[in-house]
């Protein structure tokens, strides 16, 4: 017999499982993409990847407070996922360091909102 909340908990587990790939799986592919396709040097790639890690650390507390206070948790999660998708789709179209670094901040904000 299913207990109350089991369906919700399973849905949240599934969300965490699939969105974890965004944060942990995107980085290595981005590094290879920037190295082979965009011809970036390894130092610049490392800085972009470090920006993503630092943004995640900085975003955890305010994003967690936002989601805890919000009554629209589902809407915030959907909005964050859409922003991450848009940032990933924009990557092939941009080459400037600042813009690529800005797109890497988005997955960390999304993961902070979960």
Task: Give a structural overview.
The chain has four helices and no strands. It has 114 residues and is mainly α. The chain has one domain. Helix 1 packs antiparallel against helix 2, helix 2 runs parallel beside helix 4 and helix 3 packs antiparallel against helix 4. It is elongated. 17% of the residues are buried. The model has no long low-confidence stretch (mean pLDDT 80).
Topology:
Layout: H1 6-36, H2 42-69, H3 73-90, H4 97-113
Helix pairs in contact: 1-2, 2-4, 3-4
Keywords:
single chain, elongated, 114 residues, mainly alpha
Low-pLDDT regions = none
**How would you sum up the global shape?**
elongated
Listing every helix as H and every strand as E from the N terminus to the C terminus, the arrangement reads HHHH
Give the integer mean of the pLDDT values.
80
Number of helices: 4
- Hey, roughly how much beta strand do the residues contain? under 5%
- Cα distance, first to last residue? 28 Å
- Tell me the domain tally: 1
Proportion of residues in helical segments: over 70%
The secondary structure category is: mainly alpha
